[in-house]
Amino acid sequence: MNKQSMLDLDKNPIFITGAVETALGEVKDQTELSMLALAARQALHDSGMTLKDVDGIFVNYMGEQGSVQVGEYLGIQPRYADSSDLGGAAFEAFVHHAMLAVSAGRCEVALIGYASRQRSLRSRTRSSATNNMSLTAQFETPYGLPMPLGHFALMASRHMHQYGTTSEQLASIAVAARKWACLNPKAWHRDPLSIEDVLSSRMISSPLRRLDCCLITDGGGVVIVTNQQRARDALKKPIRVIGAGESHTHWHISQMSDLTVTAGTVSGREAFSMAGIKPSDVDFVEPYDASTLTVLLAIEDLGFCEKGEGGDFVMDDRLAPGGALPMMTSGGGLSYNHPGALGVLLLIAAVSQLRGEAGERQIDHPKLGVVHGIGGMLSTAATVVLTND
Amino acid sequence: MTDQDPTIYGDSLTQPFWRAAERHVLMIQHCSNCGHYQFYPRPFCLQCESDHVEWIESKGQGVVYSSTTVHLSVSTEVEPPYQVVLVELDEGVRLLANIVEGDCDIADRVEVIWRQREGIPPLPVFRRAADKNLPESIRGARS
Fold this sequence. Notes:
The complex is a heterodimer.
Chain A: E1 14-21, H1 32-46, E2 56-59, H2 67-74, E3 80-82, H3 90-103, E4 109-116, H4 118-121, H5 135-139, H6 149-163, H7 167-181, H8 195-199, E5 203-205, E6 208-209, E7 219-227, H9 228-231, E8 239-248, H10 264-275, E9 284-287, H11 292-301, H12 310-313, H13 332-336, H14 343-355, E10 368-375, E11 380-387
Parallel strand pairs in A: 2-3, 2-4, 9-10
Antiparallel strand pairs in A: 1-7, 1-8, 4-7, 5-6, 8-11, 10-11
Chain B: H1 15-22, E1 27-31, E2 37-38, E3 53-57, E4 61-70, E5 82-89, E6 94-99, E7 109-115, E8 123-128, H2 136-141
Antiparallel strand pairs in B: 1-2, 1-3, 4-5, 4-7, 5-6, 7-8
């Protein structure tokens, strides 16, 4: 039991009972709402439930007022609603919030969901440009830093300067993601990739090249969180949530106190301490790979190695299939799918590993997985610890 | 805090910064209670939470804390490739900026100059400084 709070997850465990991808890739024949609805119905079916059972909605980035339009579309009037805006980390934070809400009895069946057609709609922008007089418009936008890749690039440059990290080391993260994607029939990119391929791809924002950066695709998913009693109805193996944490550090890159240290230090510490685990207990990790740099910093900030040693850590296929610490086991945002907010798909990838449903990508009998979301310009982080034990 | 003047660029807290920019003077905030410097402006000191923050003139000198060269088109104001850096001023605050008149590396000393803009105040950007002596604090950071 976590001694710092009233939460007693041993006595009243919390489970993920449903975890389903929406249509992925290029989605022409659905809307965002219909994509989410179809995934919600499947995730609830796997949970032995229907839409009528849902009394908590945890959704954002689906139009104005977060959960409200999704609630209406699905015909759900919730008694608990949450549209916290932590960017791509929101979905790991939603698991944290849903765990607390379900534990406190404020809702019983929490639906976490997201869908986007950012590829088909070409809605992604590179600039933070606005016409308003925000601090960003005054002090950041005029300098043309791509958002968020330029921010990642500044972090990568500093890490290289401070610790001697190399472009080859960053490239090996992209290569590991691709090796997983080659085993995933749903992955966007499935052709083999070498470190040389990454290093010869077009420079975007130095030191980051095109193949250091994530995809832009359509996609999304739904995750159902509930209590032990309701989890008994599940048709598939329920996966227990044993730790969660979240944090954020900055909005403007000038306000990030150390460009090599992210909010993951706090979200990871909170989640690992709630779960009562240490990094060496972890069988696999699903880090948010918005770029190779975000994985490097996640590895260090979650404590899998010392600060500054991430570059050495990722070499020799350690993260790849058959490696000592598998990461990005779907192929990640780099090679599988990146619908603008990958966080929900990271949860689904971890659940599929812990259920033993990952097909060719299946890790040998994993017990403990960590999902680490990030958001904004690596401004936010939220970490979830899952087990099938 | 000053009342916002709709004829001056900026918000009610940043207008003193932009007014000084018209004179090519880089202003940052200083706490007269604890001595902390900060940027962008706030109505309190982030370090000691005192209300006694005042605008002071920065010497406009610092070092490059981090750097990237952008190769894709983001803004109509700058043509790629161009360099975006975080400058750490000698007073200790960081600013995002461009490097002009050549490239700079991390830890290079830089000084402020001003980019003229149509209809709005000049923007602080930086160039390599004549003085290349690094302060001890920066040299120590790379071990």
